[in-house]
């Protein structure tokens, strides 16, 4: 059965096993609503007969059926009110099945950075994103930013009761501003919990998008993932440097060449087999209720207090201290992908309460081993290399030494070359992801 705006409107066969939420739910809805009240349904058939047994997996052909619920907007058949109510209830159940745990008709604040990447953000939104959001009946309010850090002020003053999601059409810089704008509010805890942050990849890095939606270079797919995606608690990291405190959502990095530094770390585990075991256990369990993950108590007040102080305070006694004269690579991540094709933290999870720290000391590293690093990242074998130190940590402090200038980046943005400290807050933020509990990565190998 198929309908179109110009085809005859058939009378639905009511009461004949077409329910989607009951025990006879033989329909398998596996595609997405693109047009108003229209859904594509796949179901199994054998010898021309629909398979009604729940969970049946015949070898028969698959057929796609397009149902247009708007075709039944007027009473049909006997034209009784009861029949109309049954049709509307069926359509409602169908829509609930199509969306699953995803919130329908989200209220969205869209922020567009017109200078991201190649400067095509506005065109990308108009061509690839707006039609999908509109077809899904999202309530949309758009702001095109004009200056750096403008988004911080916008979301700091935003009426969070009027929106469910903030969509950033940009690189990774705009989400950084959004998280920090919410963090500056007097009701920061509640704002970061209520407002889910989503991303349309328009920049050069796009690690946020790759982690939540997969390493797929499609802005249309990103839009559809937001429409059908699930609210997911996200760990956020407080970065303290001097008198400043910022929130990091993606990664921190130090240096682009060999450099000396001291590292102090609050280690959770540095055993790679233990890290893999924890990862796979979490994946098997699936999503954890938000109230369990929100370890910061009641959603009142500003940002949570720092458990370990700042970079200016004395080091806690139970931290491990390391002195490095030839540190070749220091990265600490909260998400799995640092950018397209760079799955640098395969064991990262959205809300396990840990950062993933990767360090490589070049003191005993051969040239051949150094050349193997990049291909290993691309192939997924990076985690298992013996000279790659991979740890789950709760906090750390970096102190550069014997040099006056160098490179430190937080979420891809350069910050002053000075000591800084990082501390994770479990489930403080919220994002939209495909799964609701993991990043789109193959995991540690």
Automatic annotation (TrEMBL):
Point out the signal peptide segment: none
Q: Give GO MF terms, alphabetically.
A: ATP binding; lipid kinase activity
Instruction: List, in alphabetical order, the GO biological process terms annotated in this UniProt record.
Output: sphingosine biosynthetic process
Q: Where is this region: Disordered?
A: 1-29
A Pfam family annotated for this chain is: YegS_C
Task: List the GO terms this entry assigns under cellular component, sorted alphabetically.
Answer: cytoplasm; membrane
Instruction: Keyword check for Nucleotide-binding, yes or no.
Output: yes
Identify the keywords attached in UniProt to this record, alphabetized: ATP-binding, Kinase, Nucleotide-binding, Transferase
- What protein is this chain from? DAGKc domain-containing protein
- Species for this entry: Monilinia fructigena
Q: What is the lineage of its organism?
A: Eukaryota, Fungi, Dikarya, Ascomycota, Pezizomycotina
């Amino acid at each position: 059965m198929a309908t179109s705006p110009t085809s005859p409107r058939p009378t639905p066969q009511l009461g004949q096993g077409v329910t989607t939420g009951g025990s006879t739910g033989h329909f398998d809805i596996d595609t997405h609503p693109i047009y108003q009240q229209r859904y594509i349904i796949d179901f199994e058939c054998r010898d021309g007969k629909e398979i009604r047994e729940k969970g049946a997996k015949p070898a028969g052909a698959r057929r796609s059926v397009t149902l247009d619920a708007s075709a039944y907007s007027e009473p049909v058949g006997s034209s009784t009110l009861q029949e109309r109510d049954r049709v509307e209830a069926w359509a409602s159940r169908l829509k609930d099945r199509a969306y699953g745990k995803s919130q329908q008709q989200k209220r969205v604040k869209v922020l567009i950075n017109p200078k991201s990447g190649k400067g095509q953000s506005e065109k990308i939104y108009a061509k690839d994103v707006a039609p999908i959001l509109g077809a899904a009946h999202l309530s949309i309010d758009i702001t095109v930013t004009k200056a750096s850090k403008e988004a911080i002020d916008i979301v700091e003053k935003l009426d969070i009761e009027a929106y469910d999601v903030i969509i950033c059409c940009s690189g990774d810089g705009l989400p950084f501003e959004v998280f920090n704008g919410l963090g500056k509010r007097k009701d920061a805890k509640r704002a970061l919990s209520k407002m889910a942050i989503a991303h349309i990849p328009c920049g050069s890095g796009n690690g946020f998008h790759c982690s939540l939606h997969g390493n797929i270079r499609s802005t249309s797919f990103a839009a559809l993932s937001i429409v059908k995606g699930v609210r997911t608690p996200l760990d956020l990291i407080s970065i303290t440097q001097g008198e400043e405190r910022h929130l990091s959502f993606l990664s921190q990095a130090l240096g682009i060449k060999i450099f000396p530094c001291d590292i102090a770390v609050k280690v959770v585990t540095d055993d790679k087999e233990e890290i893999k075991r924890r990862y796979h256990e979490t994946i098997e369990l699936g999503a954890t209720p938000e109230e369990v993950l929100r370890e910061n108590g009641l959603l009142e007040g500003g940002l949570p207090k720092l458990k370990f102080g700042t970079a200016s305070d004395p080091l806690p006694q139970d931290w491990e201290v390391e002195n490095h004269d030839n540190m070749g690579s220091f990265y600490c991540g909260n998400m799995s992908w640092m950018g397209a094709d760079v799955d640098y933290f395969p064991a990262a999870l959205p809300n396990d309460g840990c950062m993933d720290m990767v360090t490589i000391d070049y003191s005993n590293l051969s040239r051949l081993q150094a050349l193997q690093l990049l291909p290993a990242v691309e192939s997924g074998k990076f985690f298992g290399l013996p000279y790659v130190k991979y740890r789950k940590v709760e906090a750390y402090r970096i102190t550069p030494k014997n040099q006056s200038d160098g490179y430190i980046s937080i979420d891809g943005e350069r910050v002053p070359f000075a000591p800084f400290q990082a501390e994770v807050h479990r489930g403080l933020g919220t994002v939209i992801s495909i799964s609701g509990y993991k990043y789109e990565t193959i995991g540690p190998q």
